[in-house]
Amino acid sequence: MKRERLIAARVRRHWTLEQAVERLGVNPNTLYKWEAGKATPRFYNIQKLCEVYEASAWQLGLDIVQEVVTSQALATNQALSTFMQTDLTLRLLALVFEPHRVSCQHLQRLQERIRHIMEEEPAIDNDLISRREALHRLALLPFATLQLSALGASLSRPIEDILTQCAAGIAACWHLSKSAEGSDLALAFRCVSGYLPTLKAIVKDSSQYRKAAATLTGQCALLQTALCWHLQGLKEAEQYVQEAVTYSREAQDIPLLVSALAYAAWTHSYAKRYQQALHTIEQAIPLLKPKSHIVPPLVCGDIYSVWAVMQAKNGQEISPSLALAKEALLAPSDDEPCFVGTQFFASGIILNEAAAQYYQGKTERALDVLSQVIDPETLVVKLPLPEPWHIEALNDMARTALKSEHKQMERVIHFWRAALEGAVKLQSEQRFSEVLVTYEIMGSLWPREKRITELRDLVVHW
Q: What stretches in the chain show pLDDT beneath 70?
């Protein structure tokens, strides 16, 4: 069916077919087919026809065609948007490659946006790429695009690109460090170790980006510390945590610094240097300025709760420090970004309170506090909890139940078996060691109990 209006628009200008196509930039056969109704112009061709003929799509008889083409374009955009929503790697990479001006705040906001996608947005059933695989890709991105290496610095790309991609990779590694799979922890450790030589070189050589690079270096060292507890040992962890403290000071990043001091205190505590652990965490307390926006409330609460644990291990009163921790836990949080490793501090504060109560000999109170995080019957986790902390909490429940006035063997075994299974699956040296200590206590309390001796066969190091 001929398009009479389209033909009339050309005729009114007294143009031949050849004259019209010269202005439209198409061949004569194409315009002939449009006018004869044997072909339909695409959206950009409709726009060109309207421009050349100085008429609307309706005046050219192409308004219905335009609506169809527009609808198709919208459907295409919707399909692309849906694809983006289900492909986590694309969504994460889109954040990394957004135009930006690199600063400490920008890098922290980037990490916060990654955290939001991974932790707060609901999972989509038909994710094209699983969350775990997306994190693997993001963590490995700097090696693919920047040629980073644990063997030495690589500064062949713009520093802005290096810092941005490393910040995103570090965020991915923090998420991987919460996994129940030992291979995820190992990958996270290898990745942050590979970022470090280049980040340290930027700290050393760049006045413009020294603070931003120092912040990321401190984050890497802090994560190395946490992972080293599980993958290597306390001696190596001590080296990493000292680097975390050093670079946090270089960056003047107070939230990161107080967290590094807390990790250093835990490292001393795991090595049974309880006085040194207390002295270390006490260095962080003056940095928690009252009503200061420098340190977010949850970070303050975590530091106060760690302080309570170290006080309890040294036989000191814990009530004031626990009160400060609870006050911080209930305080409204601001929107200021903080390093990505802090997002689970709410559950950590509760676990630390339980540990402090345990070391004060208040076992029933400790069990009550632990039950706020893990259901003692079903072992279902009630609050978001990284897997290494989950295993530690299960072992704490077994250990605390052992010291309870109403010892129940089956209840202790219930907690202990779950902790052992988690430690073995995670391949965590620290958690496995803690579970062995608990088993030794079980054996000393019930030395000839068959149900206890039979558990020995389950204690198999990977």
A: 1, 63-86, 120-129, 290-293, 333-344
- CB within 8 A of 189, min separation 6: which ones? 223, 224, 227, 228, 231
Distance CA 233, CA 55 (A): 77
For residues 347 and 328, give the distance between their C-alpha atoms in angstroms, rounded to a whole number: 13
In the numeric block, the tokens 């709760």 are attached to 305
User: From the CB of residue 83, how many other CB atoms can be counted at a distance below 10 Å?
Assistant: 11
Check residue 127 and give its pLDDT: 54
Please report, for the chain, the start and end positions of each structural domain, with discontinuous segments joined by +: 4-86, 92-252
Rounded to the nearest integer, the mean pLDDT of the chain is 87
Please give the model's pTM, rounded to 2 decimal places.
0.77
In the CATH hierarchy, which fold is given to the domain comprising 4-86?
Answer: 434 Repressor (Amino-terminal Domain) (1.10.260)
Query: H-type helices in 232-253, by residue range?
Result: 234-251
Per the listing, tokens 């077994």 go with 398
Using alpha carbons only, give the angle 251, 255, 258 rounded to the nearest 5 degrees: 95
The pLDDT value given to residue 328: 85
Look up residue 120 and give its DSSP letter.
I
Q: What does the pLDDT read at residue 214?
A: 97
